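re: ur question from the group chat, yeah i did fold both. here u go
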Amino acid sequence: MLKPNLAALMICVAVSSALAAPIQWPASLGGNNHYYEFVLMPEIRWSDAKVAAEARTFNGFHGYLATDTSAGETNFLASHWPERGGGDQNGWLGGWQDLLAPNYSEPAGGWKWVTGEPWVYTNWYTDQPDNSGGREEYIRSNADWHWDDFPDNPINPSVQYISGYFVEYTVPEPGALILASVVALLMMGRRRILSVDRIN
């Protein structure tokens, strides 16, 4: 049984994690203006984490499992989430191995991002990926922010566990939203004018 103080601490960590607002990686710091958050959910499967990430919203936009596509992005994530509950805790990212891809081979072929972004940058841990056990088709981040391949079912007492998943949000800047709204209104007005011309 957990001691009362430890149990209270775990509840506070879970609540603060749930209430924390996503953090932006601003372009002024070399970023992409996307927002990121970590969701604490121990032992969640990658497939369930993908569905959960895509169901989450921020400023009206749906998220997706975070894609770590550059050294700069890795450094940004590591600076905000250096560890997640301990040195042996890990979080799912949006990388997966497509067994039907033309370039598929074990262990390093066929890797993709859930967003379809080009697979250029990698940050594998030493001797990873290794497809240990024959079905390691998803990417988790280690506490030091190197990656390793991992099975969809993370419950295995012989390996490190999963503590949750990272969500990324592509949220247009306010100026871009205003521009899009103006263009949409102009297009609607043009369609109305054309419709009136056809009637006359």
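okk and heres the other one u asked abt
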Amino acid sequence: MKTKAKSKLEEHILAYLIPEGGVLDLEDTNITPEHVRLLCQAGEALGEVKQLYLSNNGLSNAEVEILSKSRCLPKLEKLFLNHNQIDDEGAKTLAKSKLVRNLNCLMLEGNQIGPEGTKSFATSLNLKKLETLFLDSNPVGPEGAKVLGKSTCLPALTALHLDSTGIGDQGVKAIAATQTLTGLNKLYLCSNKISDEGAIALAQSPNLKNLNCLSIWRNEIRDSGGKAIAESQYLVKLERLYMSLNLIEKPVRKMIRSSELASRLKTLVMD
């Protein structure tokens, strides 16, 4: 008896569906615009999908434009678009889309999103449920950090990932000065050329008093910045602190390890 040939939808999309977990895992599957169109035309077949992985597919703004019009993912909560070729225009398209209205996690690490694209997320009316935003390894820059720090459209945000985004001290100071992202409990700022100025701003910020995880490794923080973090009167909820690969001298590192802050931490990583 002849086996019925699979449809393109079954072969390229539904074959990667894990119904039990509501996962559609299309990471690194050489997705083409045609495949994205198929995904968007899947109808009820994807109605229970909560997590969509499209990472590492070389997707551009064109594919994002197609995806943004999809109406077959009503329960989508987590969208992974990391390591693609999405720039500011793609970010703007995504931010305006109804597709993202129920997201609690948006992963965009390793794209080409700059200040304008970041602004589109910071001002989007569709991201009110977003809890975790990954913008690592994008050219966000200080201006992008400033618009994030002033955002009134991300009320549920608790985790902000800005590793390797070129935000520098000015961007860090903008995040530290936020009056609106006060619910943050996880902040990742690795590899941003942060100096003592930025570290002191973090340490002296009452707006970041809810942080339980702070990652500032591989920066340019010296003794003054290290001391400020250790002696902060606001980082009282901190449980995990990652600050390896900075420029803090041995005596100050020893002081940090024996500080009251260190005694409260569950994890302290510092060379």
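fwiw on the second one: The two ends are 66 Å apart (CA to CA). The longest helix spans residues 88-96. idk if thats what u expected
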